[in-house]
Amino acid sequence: MSRSNIDLPARLLLNLASWRNAATWRIAFSGGLDSTVLLHLLATLSKTEYLPTLNAIHVHHGLQAVADTWPEHCRAVCAVLGVPLQVVRVQVQPGASLERAARDARYHAFTEALQANEVLLTAQHRDDQAETLLFRLLRGAGVRGLSGMPRQRPLGKGHLLRPMLDVTRAELEAYASAHDLSWIEDPSNQDRQYSRNYLRHQVLPVLIQRWPQAVATMARSATHLNEAQGLLEELADMDLREASSASEFAWLGLRSLELAPLAHLSDARQRNALSHWLEPLTRLPDTDHWSGWEDLRDATGDACPVWRLADGELHRAGGRIWWLSGHWLRPLPGAGVWLDPASPLAIPGNGVLSLTGQIPDGPLHIRYREGGEVMALPGRGHRDLKRLLNESAVPSFVRGRLPLLYKDGQLLAVANLKGLDGGALGDWHLHWQPLNEDQGLS
Fold first, then answer.
1. Which amino acid positions bind ATP, per UniProt (predicted)?
2. Most buried among 122, 157, 309, 388, by the most CB within 10 A?
3. Superfamily of domain 3-229 in the CATH hierarchy
4. 34 annotated among ligand-binding-site residues
5. How many CB atoms lie within 10 A of CB 225?
6. pTM > 0.90: yes or no
7. Per-residue pLDDT tens digits for 58-95
């Protein structure tokens, strides 16, 4: 028997079967038709089935005056069903797309609410999937975008599930009618200036009139494309493994890849591998913007090319590509005096310094490279710091952030660099622990 022939409660249980050992199921409850049906289904099933703890979460965007009454409606519904409700008020950031800004605010709230071993259930259905496919097709999306909304994905400390992607809007309406449910009608859902509403009210009805199975076939196409995306991700994993050699500068805590294995791939495989690698780090570039990757890849060996993306930058140095974001892209504050060298020194915006071994007498000062620095080395005399950094193959983007240790105006040590970190001058070493990338994310 196909899933479409099973009644709605049984189908929902089947779709959630592998998640019944979660600690909590949190239902994203807007108060609209779709989430009202999902909440009612789960609350009813919980009376006869052993389910995880149910909680509902309502995100209040405050974008229209009428929405101020919605939290109370949601509280009333949840009270009747015996499901605890959490109301989260968010601030929607202004931008070119109000739809996207509201979605970002909503999912940020969901991410903050989810704890380990918890699941967020959302009520998107098959008609939503068809709209998503058509919307993204018109925006020129690739396989990743056209694969539609995934049935499940990690979200924060837990997971996001969409257990009703095989359910039609008509089925939800029939269920709501049969159980005499009441729900919120969002006036903005009728506003044709929003692209999704235009597709829903103006375009899809015409397509369905000509092709009655249009929604089902588009949703099926999204399933096929999702499978294709899975194969592309497997290929990307294979290619990235080839480029994931260890770097001698692993202590930087930065994500990096070896360039040569990537450069030997076809252009399409390069874009596929890099998209897979960049996807959790930044919004992916559009087709035209990929020329930035080609410029970075093909730059001459002595160049220091940079590819600027939405949420960070890709740098090339030492035969590798490096992802920089957050504090790595912010200017450093001025250096200062190290009053107690026996204790670690927190450097504003740049991690922590420490000394091990026989700590040199003070006073000690921390500075950053400005150019023209000279360092005295036993047996080598005075050497330009620039040349010493070249010999150590220090990536260009690191050089301006490397802490330099001074005493009485003399450069004593360069943090973390063997032979320059103090060891050549005495039985001590200067260690630098940069801020990790997560601490640096904006």
1. 30-35
2. 122
3. HUPs (3.40.50.620)
4. yes
5. 19
6. no
7. 998 766 666 788 899 999 999 999 999 999 988 877 76
Is 291 a known ligand-binding residue?
no
Annotated binding residue at 35? Answer: yes
pLDDT of residue 93: 76
The string of pLDDT tens digits covering residues 348-358 is 889 999 999 88
- Just give the CATH number of 243-324: 1.20.59.20
CB atoms inside a 10 Å sphere around CB 411: 18
Confidence of residue 440 (pLDDT cuts 50, 70, 90): very low
CA distance 357 to 427: 6
pLDDT for 438: 52
One-letter amino acid at 277 equals W
Q: How many CA atoms lie within 13 A of 257 on its CB side?
A: 21
Domain ranges of the chain: 3-229, 243-324, 336-440
Start-to-end C-alpha separation, the chain: 50
The two three-digit tokens of residue 35, written as one number:
């989430």
